[in-house]
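Structure first, sequence second, as always.
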């Protein structure tokens, strides 16, 4: 069970209140999970009853708890009980109480009314310096929902998190949220049911919130005239800092490994040929030599290029679906850069250019150098070493794959 029908129902059920039959129409088997937790009988009796052809039946009260729903043409009718006609309303506050701890937020006294579409449900301590407001926006109409999100953004200055049931297909609204340092989180992507009947956060939620936390931390550092992530050469040493931690310098006799890492950090998610990396670091210009021992791109390297290109395409499609404009621009640039690198490595008809170096020999040299550099970093900053070891892939192609990607000062 993924709860997707539930989040969809919150976008279409008028007033978030309906008889059980209508909730069942939208929720299907998930009604058994949702009803005891989040639907509350109001005591109101519905005047109409939904039917299969979307034409509501008119309800007639015959007294003594006997009801009949009649089709407008008068030829079809249903005998119903009082329970069939009791209106059940979504308990928005209970929904908020379930959502907050699942996503790591602190529940607070609720501010706002569910009828307005905006309910402040809690706070989130994003960093040691910043605590942001968390709002839940629910309106059963796309335009009204977008208005509610704009209202939530306007009510608060500074970083904030806005929760919505599904996806908002409004690029202008997504751009506005980015400008106002707001994080938009789609519950259909972020929440799943847990085994104990509670909500749990999905990996997508963790990735989005972690990215937001990093952006807030970076903004704090910039406001203080600081740089949260640094990897650059200063004279004979490498100046390093990770995630707003302690800044330090590393002097390393085998500085080539730091240079390799430095290059790939500047172009995340782009595979770099070890041959090209080695040439750049050595300051050499590529000149094909006769009698060379291999191709710049062998079959394995070409497959790696194709796999990376497809991975970028998949990420780009996800960014488009999530309405993440900034990520779309970044991935589009990455895709174009990868295509340019592949073109540079191939000749007429797509044939691989010939390289003078032995690819396997260079691969080993680059891999060992990167490993030594990370080991040197580990003595000063274990978190940075772990980040590099996890996100700098080695082989004949070296790629920095961090997602979300820190903004490195290089």
């Amino acid at each position: 069970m993924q709860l997707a029908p539930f989040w969809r129902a919150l976008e279409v059920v008028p007033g978030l209140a309906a008889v059980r039959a209508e909730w069942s129409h939208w929720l299907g088997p998930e009604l058994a999970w949702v009803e005891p937790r989040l639907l509350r009988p109001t005591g109101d009796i519905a005047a109409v009853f939904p039917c299969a052809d979307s034409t509501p039946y008119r309800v007639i009260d015959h007294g003594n708890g006997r009801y009949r729903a009649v089709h407008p043409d008068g030829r079809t009718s249903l005998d119903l009980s009082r329970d069939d006609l009791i209106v059940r309303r979504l308990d928005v506050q209970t929904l908020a109480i379930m959502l907050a701890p699942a996503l790591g937020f602190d529940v607070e006294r609720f501010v706002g009314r569910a009828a307005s579409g905006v309910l402040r449900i809690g706070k989130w301590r994003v960093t040691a310096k910043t605590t942001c407001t968390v709002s839940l926006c629910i309106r059963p109409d796309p335009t009204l929902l977008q208005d509610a999100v704009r209202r939530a953004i306007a009510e608060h200055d500074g970083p904030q998190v806005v929760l919505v049931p599904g996806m908002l297909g409004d690029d202008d609204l997504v751009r506005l949220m980015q400008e106002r340092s707001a994080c938009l989180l789609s519950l259909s992507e972020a929440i799943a049911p847990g085994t104990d009947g509670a909500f749990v956060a999905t990996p997508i939620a963790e990735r989005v919130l972690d990215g937001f936390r990093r952006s807030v931390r970076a903004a704090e550092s910039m406001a203080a005239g600081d740089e949260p992530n640094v990897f650059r050469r200063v004279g004979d040493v490498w100046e390093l800092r990770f995630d707003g931690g302690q800044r330090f310098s590393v002097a390393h006799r085998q500085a080539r490994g730091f240079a390799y890492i430095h290059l790939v950090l500047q172009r995340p998610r782009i595979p770099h040929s070890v041959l090209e990396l080695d040439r750049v670091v050595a300051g050499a210009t590529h000149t094909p030599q006769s009698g060379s021992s291999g191709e710049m791109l062998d079959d394995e390297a070409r497959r790696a290029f194709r796999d990376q290109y497809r991975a970028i395409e998949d990420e780009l499609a996800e960014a488009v679906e999530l309405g993440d404009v900034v990520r779309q621009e970044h991935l589009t640039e990455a895709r174009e850069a990868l295509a340019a690198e592949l073109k540079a490595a191939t000749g007429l008809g797509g044939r691989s250019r010939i390289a003078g170096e032995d690819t396997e020999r260079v691969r080993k040299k680059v891999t060992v150098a990167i490993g030594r550099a990370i080991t040197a970093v580990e003595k000063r900053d274990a978190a940075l070493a772990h980040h590099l070891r996890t996100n700098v892939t080695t082989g004949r192609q070296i790629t920095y794959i961090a997602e979300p990607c820190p903004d490195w000062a290089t």
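Margin note: The CA atoms of residues 228 and 341 lie 30 Å apart.
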